[in-house]
Amino acid sequence: MPHVETGMLVGLFGGSFNPPHEGHRLVAEIAIRRLGLDQLWWMVTPGNPLKSKRYLAPLAERIALSEKMATDPRIRVTAFEKALGLNYTAEVLDRIKARNSGVRFIWIMGADNLRDFHRWQNWKKIALTFPIAVIDRPGDTLSFLSSTMAKTFDHARVDEDDANTLGRTPAPAWTFIHGPRSTLSSTAIRKENGLIKD
After folding, report:
1. What class does this enzyme belong to in the EC scheme (predicted)?
2. Taking Cα atoms as reference points, which of 57, 74, 70 lies closest to residue 16?
């Protein structure tokens, strides 16, 4: 795990990044700016149990491409999930919390993930572990109203205007952040490159 100091506010941005693209960088930059993060951990996962494994670029390749995308010095590209031998976000977050007492964390995800968040293993536990910032993505703006997670934790929603307070708000707490959106997607890029045949 990247080095952190007590009192820091760190965003956790996980995904397969298969491949990483400008949309991912935009989510990271919006999160850093709107949440007032000291660091953002760009966590490249070995894989995603909910996504097709028909084509997954090697982890080392996805890390290298992510490092090229992550130009802000506050971003730390890491793949410690593989080293820990963990497969699920809830397990990873438990380990992060156990190893970093005194550090405040926010889980960051694109709105496209909010739509299916209730399908993640122990999704309610994730929402009860760290505050969550959902960054708008094209076609998923309304997911913050219609998703199972949004409905279940409606009482814990922090107004977007107060997003910079999220790191000081005990979980469950979440916000939906609007802003510039990129139409790029990893799936579309793989299709363009002939790596997915539907």
Report:
1. transferase
2. 57
- What is residue 110's predicted lDDT score, i.e. its pLDDT? 86
User: Rounded to two decimals, what is the model's pTM?
Assistant: 0.87
pLDDT (tens digit per residue) in 125-155: 999 999 999 998 765 556 667 889 999 999 9
Cα–Cα distance measured from residue 144 to residue 148, given in angstroms and rounded to the nearest whole number: 9
- Cα→Cα distances 18→15, 50, 51, 71, 120, Å: 8, 14, 11, 18, 19
Domain ranges of the chain: 9-192
Residue 197, pLDDT score: 45
Average pLDDT for residues 33-39, to the nearest whole number? Answer: 97
Which residues lie closer than 8 Å to 194 by C-beta, 6 or more apart?
none
